[in-house]
Design goal:
The chain is of the alpha/beta class. The chain has helices spanning 9-13, 15-24, 27-37, 40-43, 98-115, 179-190, 196-205, 214-230, 236-248, 253-266, 280-286, 291-307, 312-319, 324-336, 340-351; strands at residues 46-53, 67-76, 81-89, 125-131, 163-166.
Length: 352
């Protein structure tokens, strides 16, 4: 079996979001997560075998660079159902206003159900924030703490709190669950760490028990993509060592061969500080006659993905660049710049 490790522009600019959704949209991971990280008195009420992942998303477009969300629906043993709403914080620092974002998303979910002609009583929603930043989460989990509320006015202010899954609160050994959940949690926990390279062998070894299945191979590939695009502290040799160690210890020649294929084809161009992880085929393609135009298109795609549009002036300037090294530098700038005016200024300075 042969797998190819492809990194898209979306994976490059939104690696945490995509890995979170890829991991927690796996039904076995979702059930495992709910089983281990909701309060026992809540899980005792649930028919976990009925858990399903909806296609709903309620994060405002303006907030998608900071948050991702997933909605699980689970039947209750006594009838009816409950929604578990996961809000994932992409960044490495806590958001004090997150309770307000949650309230907005919860109201949207209830309104959606009403529009589907579902009559009250509405299903309860359990809001849960997934956080993997290195800073300690200090924001209050109670919505009323966001509002200055004299005692007499408290009945008029929504009163709810959210559950927090702060990965920094757990040692690696304290993280519960099956293989997929543990790998997801450990990678999210350590992705910003300078010592992530030291953690990779142990994390990838966890996948040995499921690696023979197609889903296991796909998940290993997803993990490799995430480490390559999401960490600025990982080296190519770290990925190679961890991958080979995890697969070779199975003692199977075909797994060692697969490891060598991935190393040769997928990890050669490991992303570090904005470089693109590509397959051997992609590298070959890059040295053909159309390599300059391909590089221009990558820069333009990055600009459009990052800022929502590529203005005509910028398109004209980029199309006038004939230096591949300069285009690589512009690609990096398109990824890291937070303002299109800053990118435009940098582009003009580099062109002079």
């Amino acid at each position: 079996m042969r797998s190819q490790l492809n990194i898209t522009m979306e994976q490059l600019t939104r690696p945490h979001d995509l890995f979170f959704k890829e991991s927690f949209s796996r039904i076995e991971t979702a059930r495992d997560f709910v089983r281990h990280y909701l309060p026992a008195e809540i899980t005792a009420l649930l028919k976990l075998e009925t858990l399903e992942i909806t296609k709903d998303s309620f994060v405002d477009k303006k907030l998608k660079e900071r948050f991702s969300d997933l909605v699980y629906r689970v039947a209750l043993k006594e009838g009816g159902s409950v929604y578990v709403y996961l809000l994932f914080e992409h960044k490495s620092h806590p958001e004090p206003e997150v309770a307000l974002y949650l309230l907005s998303c919860m109201v949207q979910l209830w309104n959606q159900r009403l529009k589907q002609n579902l009559k009250p009583p509405l299903s309860p929603i359990i809001p849960l924030v997934v956080y993997h930043g290195q800073e300690k989460w200090t924001a209050s989990r109670a919505f009323q703490d966001l509002v200055f509320t004299p005692e007499a006015m408290k009945p008029f202010v929504p009163d709810f709190s959210y559950r927090l899954w702060d990965l920094s609160d757990y040692t690696d050994h304290e993280i519960k669950g099956g293989v997929s959940l543990k790998v997801a949690a450990l990678l999210l926990k350590h992705i910003f760490s300078e010592n992530i390279g030291e953690k990779l062998p142990g994390i990838f070894k966890l996948l040995r028990s499921i690696i023979d299945a197609r889903s296991g191979l796909e998940y290993l590939e997803a993990a490799l993509r995430y480490v390559s695009s999401g960490s600025s502290h990982v080296e190519k040799d770290d990925i190679i060592r961890a991958l080979k160690e995890a697969l070779e210890e199975k003692g199977e020649d075909d797994m060692s061969t697969l490891a060598e294929q991935w190393i040769e084809e997928g990890v050669q161009k490991g992303i570090k500080k904005g470089k693109i992880l590509g397959l051997k085929e992609g590298v070959k393609k890059g040295v053909k006659a159309g390599k300059i135009q391909e590089a221009r298109e990558m820069v333009l795609e990055a600009v459009a993905s990052r800022f929502g549009t590529a203005p005509d002036d910028i398109v004209k300037e980029i199309n006038a660049v004939n230096n591949r090294a300069l285009l690589k530098l512009l690609l990096r700038q398109a990824i890291v710049c937070t303002d299109i005016n800053v990118f435009w200024k940098t582009l003009r300075e580099l062109r002079e």
